[in-house]
Write a structure and sequence with these properties.
The protein is α/β, with parallel strands linked by helices. It is built from eleven helices and 14 strands. The strands form four sheets. A seven-stranded mixed β-sheet has the order 4-5-6-11-12-13-14, with helices on one face. Strands 1-2-3 form a three-stranded parallel β-sheet, with helices on one face. Strands 7-10 form a two-stranded antiparallel ribbon.
């Protein structure tokens, strides 16, 4: 989960997903609209009998909030909540498992703030079934071939690994740039990502206000998408002053056409 604002529990229930499947929460910064959902969510998991640990990542400035929540409201949990502070000034791996890496992205806001880049690890190549059948390769050898081994036929013929497989699926990458001013230096780390979420709080007419409060305009989000050569841009975090966010979408699409608006319940295939 990336950030945890108010209403998180309600939205999560609408997805139909189990609370027990959530193991890691990455918080961008210690502003209420990004963390006020954590106390209730942590408490609810305890009431449901959760036993697996929950890992929360975020800036060091989030630690007092986490300590207060855990000591005041969640001191008898059935599971452990671990907080890991990240350095918001660095681009580095903050979490890794067998399937993915999560990198921090330095953002420019009024308080220490980090975005996150989620990068899938390369998978194994696909077996070409027709070639496996042609060479009578036994089932026990398939995993070794996926790992890179060649196959030696009964007559001694060496069948190259490449002839028996096709390339693995391309690695998918998703970047989440929460509250931030326009930061062109991000492009070096976002190059070619499949989907970039970037805040677009204001239209260009409110550029001075955006700078004052540490936010971006829709045009600036689109400019970063161009600079980073991303495949798709999703903008969000809209100011309440806009009754119709179509204005922001039009501004972004004029620069980067493959842009969409973030909306509650939206599902985007990466």
């Amino acid at each position: 989960m990336l950030d945890c604002g108010e209403g998180t529990q309600e939205q999560w229930r609408r997805t139909g997903l189990s609370w027990m499947k959530l193991g890691h929460v990455f918080i961008s910064h210690a502003h209420g609209d990004h963390v006020f959902g954590l106390p209730g969510m942590i408490s609810t998991m305890g009431l449901l009998g959760r036993t697996a640990g929950l890992h929360v990542f975020g800036p060091e400035t989030l630690r007092p909030f986490m300590d207060c929540v855990l000591q005041s409201f969640c001191d008898h949990l059935s599971y452990e909540v671990t907080f890991t502070a990240i350095d918001t000034s660095k681009h580095e791996v903050v979490f890794e498992d067998r399937s993915m890496k999560v990198w921090s992205l330095p953002l420019r806001h009024r308080v220490p703030c980090a975005g996150y880049l989620i990068e899938e690890k390369p998978g194994l190549p696909h077996i070409r079934r027709e070639m496996i059948d042609f060479y009578n390769v036994p089932t026990w050898a398939i995993n070794r071939i996926k790992q890179g081994d060649d196959w030696i036929a009964d007559d001694g013929t060496v069948v190259p690994h490449e002839r028996l497989t096709s390339p693995a699926d391309p690695v998918r990458r998703y970047a989440y740039c929460s509250d931030t001013m326009y930061s062109p230096q991000l492009a070096q780390w976002l190059d070619g990502v499949d989907l970039l979420y970037h805040e677009a709080t204001y239209a260009t007419g409110e550029k001075a206000r955006a700078d004052k409060h540490g936010h971006s305009t829709a045009a600036e989000a689109a400019a970063l998408a161009i600079k980073a050569n991303v495949k798709k841009l999703m903008i969000g975090h809209f100011s309440a002053r806009y009754d119709d966010e179509q204005l922001l979408l039009d501004e972004a699409k004029a620069i980067f056409p493959n842009t969409l608006l973030a909306k509650e319940g939206l599902v985007v295939k990466v």
